[in-house]
Amino acid sequence: MSELDAEAQELLRLGSATLYEASRSDCFLAPAFRPAWDGAQLVGRAYPVSAQIGDNLALHHGIEAAADGDVLVVDGGGGEFGYWGEVMTVAAQARGIRGLVIDGGVRDTAQLAALGFPAFSTSISIRGTIKQWPGAVGATITLRGRVVRRGDVIVADRDGIAVIPAERYDEVLEASRDRAAKEDAYMARLRAGETTLDVYDFRRLGAPRRDTTP
Predict the structure, then answer these.
(1) How does this protein assemble (predicted)?
(2) Mean pLDDT over all residues of the chain?
């Protein structure tokens, strides 16, 4: 994927929720991952990084190793440290890295927003890090129970983060297009006055007991 190509734009329009629902699998990251600044959103290929808690040396190696169009997806052990900030963002953007997803903290959020660099983290923290353990780059990681492999497609927005396995990408994209088209048809019926009970055929599931007390 090249920067902001048509397919990436389509994925952002479809959104993380539609992609997840259309996948019919648990391809989402935990809700603890939130955008570091309002409006952040990203699409790219996962480049996994494993870091020691409170040590961001592995992230510097990740910046060097990742390719244009990649998203750094980092297991920082959930540590509430400022693993990432403005300096690393400038270095990452120069190499075409599209964004960051980290189980850990980031800082310099105003600068990240001004630079337009999307970062999703489990905390915001100014607490400093050490640089002692080089970690691992490119190898499969597990973030709060979700496996992330190199090349998986990451779609992140304010609703959440979908991690689409590379081998299922075409299938999930097509299913998401179908789901979006069906939802457009549902919206038209709802705007015409139909209820969600009828549009989604929920009446077959039974009626509630009604209180007839005056």
Answers:
(1) Homotrimer.
(2) 95
Closest CA to 71 of 37, 95, 38: 95
CA nearest to 161, candidates 101, 96, 211: 101
Note if the pTM is more than 0.70: yes
pLDDT for 113 equals 98
- Helices 86-94 & 57-65, crossing angle to 10 degrees? 20
The per-residue pLDDT for 4 is 53
Counting other chains too, the contacts that 60-68 makes at CB distance below 8 Å and 24 or more residues apart are 60/88, 60/131, 61/134, 61/135, 61/137, 62/137, 63/88, 63/91, 63/92, 63/95, 63/97, 64/95, 65/137, 65/138, 66/92, 66/95, 66/97, 66/137, 67/95, 67/96, 68/3, 68/95, 68/96, 68/97
* CB contact at 8 A, 168 and 147: no
45 forms beta bridges with 70, 153
HSE-CB at 98 with a 13 A cutoff on CA atoms is 23
User: What is the greatest pairwise CA distance in the chain?
Assistant: 73
**Rg of the Cα atoms in the chain:** 20
- The tens digit of pLDDT for each residue in 133-182 reads 999 999 999 999 999 999 999 999 999 999 999 999 999 999 999 999 99
